[in-house]
Write a structure and sequence with these properties.
Alpha-Beta Plaits; globular; four-stranded antiparallel sheet; alpha+beta; 4 strands
């Protein structure tokens, strides 16, 4: 059975950071706040390049993550169900 996430947050790789460090930072933040993502997948996007999408079952868990990891000055590329 596939879980459908009400909120999927797209996180683009930050300039000057490796992709693996960006993923590690996100995972560490989630662990610190004891938040379990419903999905975690790498993606490529013509607008934002390489990054990853993280799905959250509850918007209240995903929004703080989005605010912490979205690049400043970029629009949210999130999807809501």
């Amino acid at each position: 059975m596939t879980l459908i996430s009400p909120l999927t947050v797209h996180v683009a790789k930050k300039p000057g950071r490796s992709f693996s460090n960006s993923m590690r930072d996100a995972r560490s933040w989630l662990d610190h706040y004891q938040i379990t993502a419903t999905s975690f997948k790498t993606v490529t996007n013509a607008k934002s390049g390489i990054g990853f999408d993280i799905g959250f079952q509850h918007r209240g868990r995903g929004i703080p993550f989005r605010e912490r990891f979205r690049l400043k000055g970029t629009p949210a590329l999130d999807r809501e169900v």
